[in-house]
């Protein structure tokens, strides 16, 4: 059986953002309701005016004007809510980035502790000493050989190079064998009266 999947922890910031978004959605629904009332009051005013009932038409228009003022107020509230949600979400992103930077800075500090200046200098000194030791060994070997021995070493080197140059190349491409037709070969055999090499006919 597999392990249980970890459930992401819901923080107080997440709850706050969720509440703000719920309020935003309610305001949008309220705006749709107000828009329906505005359209209806406009139709009522027009109907009363067509029937010659001017007073009732004015009352309908006043009610419509009041609903328009409510719609303007909800527009302002909705804009405030959306700005607040965006600000909180952006602030959470900034906090996450800062935490990442802090972790990266801590890692760099640990690396710097492991690679201190003394360790680097000691490593460079050891490398320099190894190179000097190798140079000294080379000079000792060179000085311990006589002139004839040095000439002999050079001769062996030339001989090794000559042997390498004389080795056959392994990447030579051989030419393809000519292809002869079996029927023409049989005709040639019957004309000369001599028996040639039989070539099997493949399908």
TrEMBL record:
Q: Which GO terms describe its biological process?
A: late endosome to vacuole transport via multivesicular body sorting pathway; protein transport; vesicle budding from membrane
Give the location in the cell: Endosome membrane
Source organism's superkingdom? Eukaryota
| Signal peptide start-end | none
Q: What is its main location?
A: membrane
One cellular component term (GO) for this entry is: multivesicular body
Q: Which UniProt keywords apply?
A: Endosome, Membrane, Protein transport, Transport
- State the similarity comment: Belongs to the SNF7 family.
Q: What is this protein called?
A: Snf7 family
């Amino acid at each position: 059986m597999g392990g249980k999947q970890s459930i992401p922890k819901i923080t107080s910031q997440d709850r706050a953002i969720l509440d703000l978004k719920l309020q935003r959605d309610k305001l949008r629904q309220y705006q749709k309701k107000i828009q329906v009332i505005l359209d209806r009051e406009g139709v009522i005013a027009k109907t009363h005016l067509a029937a010659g009932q001017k007073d009732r038409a004015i009352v309908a228009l006043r009610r419509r004007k009041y609903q328009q003022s409510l719609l303007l107020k909800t527009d302002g509230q909705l804009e405030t809510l959306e700005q607040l949600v965006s600000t909180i979400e952006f602030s959470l992103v900034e906090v996450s980035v800062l935490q990442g930077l802090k972790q990266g800075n801590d890692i760099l500090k640990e690396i710097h502790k492991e690679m201190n200046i003394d360790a680097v200098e000691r490593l460079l000194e050891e490398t320099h000493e190894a190179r000097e030791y190798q140079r000294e060994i080379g000079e000792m070997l060179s000085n311990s050989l006589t002139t004839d021995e040095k000439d002999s070493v050079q001769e062996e080197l030339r001989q090794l190079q000559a042997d390498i140059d004389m080795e056959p190349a392994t990447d030579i491409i051989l030419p393809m064998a000519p292809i002869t037709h079996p029927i023409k070969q049989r005709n040639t055999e019957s004309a000369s009266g001599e028996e040639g090499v039989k070539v099997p006919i493949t399908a």
